[in-house]
């Protein structure tokens, strides 16, 4: 199936490239053969309209996900742009060889060629820049800056196309597997899944904290719900909100129990809900992912050394912004305080494991600062100084809290950051497929009877 996709893509490139070149050449040739300004104008307008129709109707429905279809058409535009430029170069050289260049229309033809190629190029570049996930901010900036440097711009364009083609091929294979996996219902667990976000984020429908993971799991039968707790508040406060959400899910669905998968501070919130808010009997399992169970010495250091005035400004701005995003009572400083090693030591005494609930933890780490995106790449060396191996925020020792702990070794020299492990950046990481990782977690819960 992937091979047929690649063959079809090559066919589209050739066919549309040929047709687009006709839109360029026919008006130029016609302007030589016909007389009358109005007739020539009509021919050029018709050629421009035909070019726009081709640009607009590049194959769209290639993927289930709309942004991938847009990305595909943008990549196709860029490849046709290169092909079209090469074909025009060959054409001009051929005409020069046989002395068929009509210098009287050369400048007009050149302007016409530049106009249509500009339309084609920017159609592709804008679609690619707006829809690609793997291109990254750094590559976008470099490509934009190098676009004005001769020869370098060609190299960068080819590199952009290579990255996009790799992304499209990866996602196309994923979609092919999804069609089969949807029939297996391999992630349909006995109890539904409650995904609990970490600090400084909310569960927003169109900006999913968990990236591509929920869609992937739902395709395989998973029944997914979200924590919807405050983005920043005390562990006890958020724990009570989670308890209310758990009771609501159980009451509305009749599911009896739920499986919780919680990231970062969400793991502490979930533990508090289970141990202190009367919902232990409604929880089958808790899986925490990069949760600072033993706190962060780094957080404690910041609280003690950050200028009080700066902390106050950040708190005021944050609380005001997240109230508008749906928080009822955000409290930036309280949330950070509950992540310190001193606070977590006290919390752990209040949140013992409850019999009947299956507990497991997951820990990841990176090997160098450059493995994480901003601002994790800045935090990594500081956290390493205080806490040792870490994912950019949370140490391995703090995250691997329960007897059942899975430590994910970094693939190659990169590693898995605090953001990577929830697919926040939507980046395809060589050696680690985050969607498959969550599928495996849930299949394991299913096999254990949860």
UniProtKB/TrEMBL annotation:
<feature type="transmembrane region" description="Helical">
    <location>
        <begin position="101"/>
        <end position="122"/>
    </location>
</feature>
<feature type="transmembrane region" description="Helical">
    <location>
        <begin position="12"/>
        <end position="32"/>
    </location>
</feature>
<protein>
    <submittedName>
        <fullName>Triacylglycerol lipase</fullName>
    </submittedName>
</protein>
<feature type="transmembrane region" description="Helical">
    <location>
        <begin position="142"/>
        <end position="164"/>
    </location>
</feature>
<keyword id="KW-1133">Transmembrane helix</keyword>
<keyword id="KW-0812">Transmembrane</keyword>
<dbReference type="InterPro" id="IPR029058">
    <property type="entry name" value="AB_hydrolase_fold"/>
</dbReference>
<feature type="transmembrane region" description="Helical">
    <location>
        <begin position="70"/>
        <end position="95"/>
    </location>
</feature>
<dbReference type="InterPro" id="IPR007751">
    <property type="entry name" value="DUF676_lipase-like"/>
</dbReference>
<dbReference type="Pfam" id="PF05057">
    <property type="entry name" value="DUF676"/>
</dbReference>
<feature type="domain" description="DUF676">
    <location>
        <begin position="232"/>
        <end position="316"/>
    </location>
</feature>
<feature type="transmembrane region" description="Helical">
    <location>
        <begin position="38"/>
        <end position="58"/>
    </location>
</feature>
<keyword id="KW-0472">Membrane</keyword>
């Amino acid at each position: 199936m992937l091979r047929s996709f690649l063959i079809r893509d090559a066919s589209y490139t050739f066919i549309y490239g040929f047709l687009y070149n006709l839109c360029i050449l026919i008006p130029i040739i016609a302007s030589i053969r016909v007389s009358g300004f109005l007739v020539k104008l009509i021919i050029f307008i018709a050629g421009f309209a035909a070019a726009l129709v081709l640009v607009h109707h590049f194959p769209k429905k290639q993927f289930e996900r709309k942004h991938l279809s847009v990305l595909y058409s943008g990549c196709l535009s860029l490849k046709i742009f290169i092909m079209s430029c090469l074909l025009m170069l060959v054409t001009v050289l051929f005409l020069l060889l046989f002395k068929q260049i009509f210098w009287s229309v050369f400048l007009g033809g050149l302007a016409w060629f530049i106009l249509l190629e500009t339309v084609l190029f920017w159609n592709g570049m804008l679609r690619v820049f707006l829809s690609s996930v793997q291109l990254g901010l750094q590559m976008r900036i470099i490509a934009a800056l190098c676009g004005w440097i001769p020869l370098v711009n060609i190299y960068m364009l080819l590199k952009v196309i290579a990255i996009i083609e790799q992304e499209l091929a990866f996602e196309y294979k994923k979609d092919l597997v999804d069609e089969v996996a949807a029939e297996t219902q391999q992630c349909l667990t006995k109890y539904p899944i409650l995904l609990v976000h970490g600090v400084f984020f909310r569960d927003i429908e169109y900006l999913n904290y968990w990236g591509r993971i929920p869609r992937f799991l739902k395709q395989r039968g998973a029944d997914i719900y979200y924590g919807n707790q405050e983005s920043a508040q005390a562990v006890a406060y958020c724990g009570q909100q989670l308890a209310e959400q758990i009771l609501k899910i159980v009451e509305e669905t009749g599911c009896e129990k739920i499986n919780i998968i919680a990231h970062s501070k969400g793991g502490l919130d979930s533990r508090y809900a289970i141990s202190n808010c009367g919902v232990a009997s409604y929880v089958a399992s808790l899986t925490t992912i990069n949760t600072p169970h033993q706190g962060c010495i780094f957080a404690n250091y910041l609280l003690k050394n950050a200028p009080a005035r700066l902390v106050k400004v950040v708190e005021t701005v944050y609380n005001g912004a997240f109230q508008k995003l749906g928080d009822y009572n955000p409290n930036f400083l309280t949330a950070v305080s509950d992540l310190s090693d001193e606070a977590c030591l006290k919390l752990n005494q209040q949140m013992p494991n409850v019999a009947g609930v299956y507990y497991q933890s997951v820990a990841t780490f990176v090997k160098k600062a450059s493995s994480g995106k901003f601002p994790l790449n800045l935090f990594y060396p500081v956290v390493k100084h205080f806490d040792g191996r870490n994912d950019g925020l949370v140490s391995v020792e703090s995250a691997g809290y329960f007897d059942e702990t899975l430590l994910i070794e970094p693939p190659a020299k990169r590693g898995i950051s605090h953001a990577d492990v929830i697919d926040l950046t939507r980046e395809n990481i060589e050696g680690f497929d985050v969607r498959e990782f969550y599928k495996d977690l849930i299949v394991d819960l299913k096999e254990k009877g949860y």
